[in-house]
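Protocol step 6 of 9: fold each sequence in the batch and record its structure tokens directly after the sequence line. For illustration, a two-sequence batch is reproduced in full.

Sequence one:
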Amino acid sequence: PIQTRDGDGNVVLDLAPKQPLPTLARLILSIDPKSWEVRKAVIYDQFENTVTMRFTKMALNTGLPNSLFTFTPPKGVATVPLQ
């Protein structure tokens, strides 16, 4: 069975690139189900070595202007607002 939650109750996304790279063959993200903030990322390389990053004491919306960030969805992709 596919694990959809971790031991802390976070939503787990198990991601694989379309074309694996030597430094990235798999990425697992643990996401807080209430705030949708990434809490942990585990990166696997081609040799199954892992790098685990835990995100704590995050500062959100610290005054960066929205103009610094742009997103253009690929053609044919539907977007859904989170609010």
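Sequence two, same batch, same settings:
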Amino acid sequence: MQDVALIILIIVGFVIAFAALWTGIVWLTSRLGGWADIAEEFPATGRIVGDTFKFCSARLRYVVNYSHCLTITVTPSGLHIIPMIFFRLGHPALLI
């Protein structure tokens, strides 16, 4: 019985530690790459309608590479860029 409780504790601890590490890395990526700075200048607002391209890539500040994780929508008002759901913390949608 004690072994089962220890295994459950290890699994729960791993999940919590992984989530905290992932959250920190994704947030730090938005700061190092400059996504947060761009989002202040070009926030996306309103409904987005246009041609959508999924799994696009981009590189910001020679530091951060968004490989195949961006969705870009071409609209009459500009390019709407948003990362996949797993990378959205600290990465608000952009409309450039």
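Proceed to step 7 once all outputs are recorded. Observation for sequence two: The mean pLDDT is 92.
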